[in-house]
Each structure stands twice: as C-alpha cells, then as structure tokens.
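Thread title: Can someone regenerate the structure for this chain?

I was given the following input by a collaborator and told the matching structure tokens would be attached. They weren't. Posting the sequence so someone can regenerate them.
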Amino acid sequence: MHHGTRLKCCLNLWKNMGNIKMHIINQGKVFKGSPNSELAKSCFPFAVKLSNGDLIVSFQAASVKNGIDSKSLISRSNDNGLTWSQAEAVFDPTLNGKKGVLHLSYISELQSGKLIAGILWCDHYDDSSLEFFNAKTGGLLPTEACISFSEDNGKTWSKLKAIEKGDLGTIPTPVMGPVHRLESGCLILPFETSKSYDDESVWLHKACYFVSYDGGKTWPKYKIVAHDPECKIYYWDHRIANLGRGKLVDLFWAYDAVNNKELNAYLSSSTDFGENWTRPEKTKIVGQPWPIPIDGDTFAVVAVDRNFTNTIKLYLTNNFGKDFNAAEALIIYDNKKAATVKTNLNDQLVEMTNWSYGLPSGCKLNDKEILIVYYAGDSAGVDINWCKVKL
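Best answer:
Regenerated them for you:
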C-alpha cells in the first residue's frame, strides 16, 4: 500500500471513530428483590465512585415502595461493577430519639476516605396504613433532610443530623440528590419544598439547596434554583451536576399543573458557583432526568420516559446543555408496556407508588465509560440493575 493511501485510510478511520455511538458493554444486577418479603421492592438507586476505586450504590428496599418498612441499603463493588456485596442497612434511622423511616440516601466523597450522605428521613407515625403521599391533598408525611458522615469509606456512619429549615418552618423537605462540594469551598445539598400531609392548599413548590460553609457542620441558608410563583409549572426532582470551574447544571422533571401533563425536562445553569441561575428552559429530553458530569462542558443525562416510549434513555451534550441530540439517545431499558394517562396532579403523585421501573442515575467510571443504575421489576419483586456504557 502506498504511503498516501495508508495515510488516507488512517485519517478516515480517525474521522469515523468520532461517529461511533454510545453503546452498552455490560450489565447486571446490584440487588435482586425478594418476593413476599420486606425486601421485595427496591428503588431510588444512586451510584458513586470513590477515590480508592470502590463503587457504592445506595437504594431503598421495602415490602412496598415507600412503605413503613423502607430501609436505605448500600452495596459495594471493588471490581468496577462486575460483582456487588450483600446489601447492608448502614444508617441508624433514629433522629433526635425518634425512630423513623429512611426512604433514600445519596452518598458523596468529601476527601479520600471521608464520605457524607444526604438522607430522607420520614415519620410514618408507626401507622402502616398511611401512604407516603396523601392521595387527597398531594401532601407528604413529615420528612427531614438529614446528613451523616463516614470516616472509613462508608463502612460505619455517624448519627443522623437534621438540617435546620429556618423560615421554611415544618414543611417537608425531601432530599433530591447528593451533597456537592464546590470549588468555592462550600457544600450544597439539593431538596425541594413539599406541603404537609393534610394541607389542601396549592402546592408552593420550590427547587432549592441548603448551603454549608464549614464542611457540613452547619447549613445556615438555602438558595432557590427554580420556582414558578403562579404554580403553573412544577420543577420537580431537580438534580444538580457539578461540572467544575464554577459551572453547575440543574435538570428538572417538569409538570404542567394547568393542563395536568408532564413536559420535557427543563434545564437551568450557573457559571458562578450557584450564586445566579438561568431561567429554566425546555430541553429535548423526555421524562425524569439525572445529569452525569463527564468532562468540562460535556455531560450525560439519563432519563426515564413513562408517558410515551416507556424507556430509560441516555443523552449526551458537549456544549453545557445547549443542545441534546435526542435522535442518538441510547435506550438503556425498554419496559414494553402501554403508558397510563394521569388526569390530575394527585393521580400523578399516587401513580409514583405503582411504578415498577425508573429513576435512573449514574456516575463516571473513566473518560470513556459511565455506570447507570436503575430499578425495574414487576408486581412480585423489583431489582436494582446496573448498566455500563461506552461513550
């Protein structure tokens, strides 16, 4: 082969490599639900990679989703996700002397060996007949945003500490994601405002985060990222990704409260360590999203769509979320069932309890691979699944 021809072939190969699409390279289970037990239904998984290489996935397990016997479990992998340890309940559900119910936990690493968990603690009043969501009002049982620390890579954890709510009073403040350590030195913990269980008034929803300036000892203030004062759009389940250099993105599962329907995911961004946020704008992403930082302005978003395609898809952007090529989204999971139509907000909230798949999240493994975790199953049992994707 002539040198010119060989060079041309090499250049064409290099060019085509840039067109290689994302694809699944491996998948399996972190945890398998055990039918007819207190561990039958698992959900709300979150994955984090530690500096020592370990992977930790935290999730809820219960006899029914969000039930009174819910536990926050963690499982660990030290072989890059191929095998997983037996799940353990490592957090003490006692808060200020009262035993509550832990619905979920999100773990992040502050420094090598030192971890912090953002935890949703709930008071079920020792009454198993009470649903987490009130079907009549859309309110929540009393919840607290709590934190716990570990000094040994997550083997043992400190007692729960509730974050002071200040002028938010006693309204439920469910945690929406892990603690993020910003380069400015502060910590932020995402949460949203809900309303009390029997409150029949309009839901004054706000997507917020608590702020700490002393490593998580105190959280003296909170900041609002998104809020519609007219309550026409709810910016639910907001998930923040820290892209570094002061850049943050926040993805919202958006709901049109006027026409009672889900909207495409919305996105807000900040370039000054969260001091200011852009007005949320609609994206091409359909469903309930979770952003995963990759490198610089590049990040992935994994989202579950329960209204149109009944799939979990992975999207990618390399321009700080200005555009997502929805046509090239990778299907992570296909439920193959017809979508159900919700006629009002309360129906939507109650339906969440019945969903048997979804709420994916993920973390970066290396420059070319990410790990996705999600729950999926049936009426008998729901598992926590993992999926490794090549970018």
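The longest helix spans residues 3-17.
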